[in-house]
Amino acid sequence: MSSLKIVNVVGARPNFMKVAPLWEAMRAQPGIEPLVLHTGQHYDHKMSQLFFDHLGLPKPDVYLGVGSGGHGEQTGKVMIAFEREMQTLRPDLVLVVGDVNSTIACGLVAVKMNVKLVHVEAGLRSYDRTMPEEVNRVLTDQIADYLFTTERSALDNLRREGIPEERVFFVGNVMIDSLLKHREKASRSQVLEDLGLSPRNYVLVTLHRPSNVDDRDTLAGLLEVLGALSARMPVVFPIHPRTRAKLAEFRLDRVLRGYRDLKLVDPLGYLDFLKCMDNARVVVTDSGGIQEETTALGVPCVTARENTERPITVSEGTNVLAGQSPERILAEANRVIDGQGKAGRRPELWDGRAAERIVKVLWDREGRAAHGPPGGREGKGAQRPPAGGQFGRKS
After folding, report:
1. Which domains does the chain have, with CATH numbers?
2. pLDDT tens per residue across span 212-271
3. How far apart are CA 395 and CA 384, in angstroms?
4. CA nearest 65: which of 52, 80, 87?
5. Rounded CA gap, 258 and 232, in Å?
6. Which of 97, 102, 216, 246 is the most exposed place for a label (fewest CB within 10 A)?
7. In this structure, are residues 36 and 251 in contact, taking their beta carbons and an 8 Å threshold?
């Protein structure tokens, strides 16, 4: 009897952490054939291949190699290449995660080819349409057949947008699955010794969003924050390729060289970065995923953004939304350094078993009757509102 073939799409670094536990859970379910398709949206070794190695992901079954480009160009390249591969792969389901360009591009191709679409991390909203990721999130949710959410507020967002509740499942956070699985292994990393850092005695920084790094004055203000923090304790700044390019373009890289205790380093691999994050006094970031990871780890986080699509990290977690004001960001980081950081708790179902719940839903509804007998692990059940009705398009 044929297997349930699922193409798992990855394109950018956050996708790798989300797909790794899903691929593992699918492999453990007899009757599912999981494939990994890498669009090549992130192609730098430390942004891509190193993460595959650390997370135990296999070599991608398909690599599109689309590379960089503007949003329209990159999305179009992915759609053209993915459509070509879909004609050969002929999967039962296409699974996309998060909100990158690869997510909406492959989602559009799937539904136009009458293949059911699965969106993991659905329903998150910043309500800021100037963010390309927000547009990707909204559009992907509108066309998806299965929408798996990380927090309960996501259902309210989807309901307001007219998504039928029977398509929505609250399962938890697959990124936290990866974090909890690899935390102990990451603890053996020597990265702190290599960087001359001691636990709870440094600030970890990541900045990459266009709203922060594409404007010279905004970026200069954030660098002043890093300089002020580095006067109190070491600041380690793994620099995104986009940010490094902007520093050079604006001739601000010389400013960083003037800060004595700021450590500018290349992007870190997953385990090294997890070790740095787990042992930081405070994390200053504009990343969505890092807001979630610091909440799961119990590490205070100051987010340099005006909004967040992950409100549970603020309402329940360790995250403080500081906006883009250098004064406010510095004040919130100093508050943590002074021992007045925000306490939080790990949100509901962020327990390391979200991938199992997702695979169970997909197998029960798409695989069990059509593709073979039941088997494999049974995660604690996903939670969704009572509802009836059909799922997705008919092939």
Report:
1. 4-172+350-371 (3.40.50.2000), 183-337 (3.40.50.2000)
2. 999 999 999 999 999 999 999 999 999 988 899 999 999 998 888 889 899 999 999 999
3. 25
4. 80
5. 15
6. 216
7. no
**CA separation for the pair 365, 198 (Å, rounded):** 49
- Read off the amino acid at residue 342: K
- Angle CA(130)–CA(132)–CA(133) in degrees, nearest 5? 120
pLDDT of residue 372: 60
Global pTM? 0.90
Distance in Å from the first CA to the final CA of the chain: 19
**Quick check: helix, strand or coil at residue 225?**
helix
- Residue 286: phi and psi, rounded to 5, are -125, 15
Cα gap 334→229, rounded to integer Å: 8
Block residue for tokens 């003037």:
258
- Predicted local distance difference test score (pLDDT) of residue 186: 97
Catalytic pick from 45, 54, 208, 240? Answer: 208
Listed residue (285, 236, 244, 245) closest to 265, CA to CA = 236
State phi, psi for 130 to the nearest 5 degrees: -75, -15
pLDDT, one tens digit per residue, over 11-60 is 988 899 999 999 999 999 999 999 999 998 765 545 556 667 788 888 89
- Within 8 A by CB and 6+ apart from 35, the residues are 5, 6, 7, 8, 61, 62, 89, 91
Rounded-to-integer distance, Cα 148 and Cα 288, Å? 17
Rounded Cα distance, 123 and 142, in Å: 10
Dihedral, CA of residue 7, residue 86, residue 69 and residue 36, to nearest 10: 20
Are residues 116 and 393 in contact, defined by beta-carbon separation less than 8 angstroms? yes
The CB density around residue 6, as the number of other CB atoms within 10 Å, is 25
The sheet carrying 235-238 orders its strands as 262-265, 235-238, 203-206, 282-285, 301-303, 319-321
**C-alpha atoms less than 13 angstroms from C-alpha of 387 in its C-beta half-sphere:** 13
Cα distance between residue 112 and residue 109, in whole Å: 5
Residue 38 falls in the annotated catalytic set: no
